[in-house]
Amino acid sequence: MEMEEGQQVFTGLLKSFSPKDGYGFIACPVLFDAFGRDVYVNQDKVPHGACAGCTVEFTLRISTRGQPQAHQVFLVQESADDLIGAAQAVNKDYLTFASDMSHYTIVVYKKKRSRLGIDVDTTHGTAGLLVDAVKGGLVEEWNKNHPLMKVQAGDHIIEVNGVVGDAQAVLAECQSANRLSMRLLRGRLEPSNDDRSCLPSLQVVSWNVLAGAYASLKMYPNVDPAILRAPRRRAQVAAALAHLSADVICLQEVDCSLEELGLCAEYDSCTAQRPQGRCDRCVIAWKRDRLEVGTAGHRAIFFDDHPPPAAFECDPAHYETGNVGLAVELRLRSDPGKRCITVATTHLCWEPHKMDVRAWQLHAFFSMVSRFASPRILLCGDLNSQPRTQPHQFLAQGCRLVSAYQDMESDAVTNSNADVNPGGFAAMIDYIWFSPKWFSIRKRLHLPSCDELRAQANVMESDPVPTLLSAGWPSDHLALSVVLELTNPVMVMDDWDFD
């Protein structure tokens, strides 16, 4: 399309645009001075790829009501230097693995006729004891109360009550002392051909990358409009994902090609597009040199197609939110046992008053995933649910999964917007959940608290938590990432275990 000859061309900023509503507005200072309002733009005039924050050039027509309307609209392309600069500006503080969880400490007290409840191998190494099996007793009780620090077969006891460096001395201290402060190491202690100490691990990322349709000045009125530009934010997402270089990546609110996010060269993927013309989708991508799709394949699940039973006695429209889930069965190429894991991701509905919908969506998701895939499950996503809410309790109690950030959920922030509600919003609503029977955590990304985010922005304690979307971060959500070890080498699979 070319500009009509003789037409004056104006430059402005696409201030807002909603594909759902079918229109948006362009901020143009010259025309605002003339008309006292922003310029209306209809959906059919918006160039492909344009979103809030983009710079556009346009010609003008006046409506029958005397209001300015954009006619011919062209997208002003970002320069390569601008995109490189944006990628280099990504805040690496949000990409730091601050917690190495390969070492952990347990404390147990032996009482009369109580037993420790572990079998150990003293011949596996000179420096520590290899845990062969956990068989009830004090250690099993510890495991029930501390799921993130479970003692498991393949771990090594390297220190007991300060005794360290000699396996026989460590064993003697275990047998003689009543109070045992035991320091353990996950996985390999020293080179060995024993599979129990050389178990496969995976780095997993989950991230809501903020679709362009939702990155508007209406939602983020105090964010620099230049920060909202989709090409700029996509360059930053790609830089962050390249920095993490995870084996499995679960993304929500993806509205562009995976090539723009740097996920084509090394990754295979599957997607679930939201229905009824919505712009975004869920994506699971995995490194093709490490993983392959298992026999169960993948499934996209559309929650609108699975309304609750009639017993709920509610308006079916209440549950029609256009949300989706996605699951895939993957297999480690290097694993001689060909063990399969299920990776699932979802983005539950966001409306604050629809906690019951989120709970139903999660229950339906699990029910359908369990029909086709392995119970060695990782569930990642934006659940729009804070800790101790009904969806959270369903996963923790009904599904017997463990949140990778369980011990810091009350303080950690994964999503913030200083301009919603009185006082803004900041909380943990994104998660990585796993089955503790099959996985243990080696390390994880640090998640900041409200106080840390205020301190970084140099604002007062009484001020709202700053919006995460900023010059150094492309979304209002943080990325979560953990390194998980597949700890159970048993080949026989149990059935799914959830209520």
Descriptive notes:
This protein is of the alpha+beta class. The protein is built from eight helices and 26 strands. The protein has helices spanning 29-35, 80-88, 137-145, 167-176, 230-244, 355-369, 390-398, 450-457; strands at residues 10-18, 23-27, 39-42, 55-62, 68-75, 99-100, 103-109, 118-121, 129-134, 156-160, 163-164, 179-185, 201-208, 248-254, 267-273, 281-287, 291-302, 324-332, 340-347, 377-382, 402-403, 415-417, 425-427, 430-434, 439-444, 480-486. Strands 6-25-26-13-14-16-15 form a seven-stranded mixed β-sheet, with no helix packed on it. Helix 6 (355-369) runs parallel beside helix 7. The longest helix is centred in the middle third of the chain and has 15 residues, at 230-244. It is elongated, with a radius of gyration of 26 Å.
Secondary structure tally, helices = 8
Shape: elongated
Mean pLDDT across all residues, rounded?
87
Strand content: 25-35%
Distance between the termini: 58 Å
The counted number of beta strands is 26
Question: Which class best fits the helix and strand makeup?
Answer: alpha+beta
Low-confidence stretches: 190-198
Main β-sheet description? 7 strands, mixed
**Which sequence of strands runs across the widest sheet?**
6-25-26-13-14-16-15
